Amino acid sequence: MSRRARIAALAAAPLVAAGAFAVAPAAVSAPAATAPTAALSATTVVNWAQTGPLRVTVDDAPDHRIYRPANLGEKSTKRPVVIWGNGTGATPAAYDKLLRHWASHGFIVAAAKTKSSNDGVQMRQGLDLLEERNSTPSSPYFQKVDLEHVASAGHSQGGAGALNAAADPRVDAVLPIQPGPLASPGKVDQPTLYMAGEEDNVVKPAWVLGDYNASSNRPAAYAEIRGAGHLASTGNGGNFRGMSTAWLYFTLRDDAGARAMFGGPSCGYCSDTTLLSQWKRNAKFLTFTD
């Protein structure tokens, strides 16, 4: 059976019929809050899986659920953006604690409510929505949205959606988590962190590795989370949470501590065999991080 046929068969039945996405428990409990990390030096050790310092609120729109810091900051403060795509048959509720986690670190997350996010269209509409609110004087988002720093992220079908949404030139970085097959990785231009699960029987790690291998045109890395199955990234993100947060800090904030996790002489993830069963970086990624 081909890669695409196998994914279609596995994703359509157990994930939707059993309702596994919507109710999957988180693999790792959320830790206590930590201090802000924006000014960290490259030598500072950070547990990126810890909850951030900011209180979170959630705003509902017809087609999106927006997770954001309750206090968007003073006039000069702007918050980077993540547009999110769900797995097959899922809604943002399946990833609620992960998306809250990112918002607690100061990111505005526009999560598309669609259960079919593969084309990335509704994900990109979340960015349109934030652009509109950012330009509306009566909105709490007015001039608070950092539209110059945007990442597209998603899980499973939404991981493919994250790659497809990167066709939008407003997207600066990509985070496909256990991504489905219906995307063209070689057409993406932005830095990309591919995340796979070592024990994923729905989206095989080898398939995600193939997407990474097709991404030599840009900075790309491959991270395989040790022992993780296909639903390990739902809920609060499990062991995907910390690395994904560091990636957002690095690519959207150019945070020195986060950068040091991906490159440089102390490259934190390069030798982290407790978290990762495989870790690869291409030549462009080495230039991008080191």
Please describe the topology of this protein.
Elements: H1 3-12, H2 14-17, H3 20-23, E1 56-60, E2 64-69, E3 79-85, H4 96-104, E4 108-112, H5 121-134, E5 145-155, H6 157-165, E6 173-177, E7 192-197, H7 205-213, E8 220-225, H8 241-253, H9 256-262, E9 276-281, H10 283-289
Parallel strand pairs: 3-4, 3-5, 5-6, 6-7, 7-8
Antiparallel strand pairs: 1-2, 2-4, 8-9
Please describe what this structure looks like.
The protein has a single domain (47-289), classed as Rossmann fold. Helix content is 30%, strand content 20%. It has 10 helices and 9 strands. The chain has helices at 3-12, 14-17, 20-23, 96-104, 121-134, 157-165, 205-213, 241-253, 256-262, 283-289; strands spanning 56-60, 64-69, 79-85, 108-112, 145-155, 173-177, 192-197, 220-225, 276-281. The protein has a 9-stranded mixed sheet, sandwiched between helices. β3 (79-85), α4 (96-104) and β4 form a beta-alpha-beta unit. The chain starts with a helix and ends with a helix. Mean pLDDT is 88; it is low at 1-44. It is an enzyme of class 3 (hydrolase).
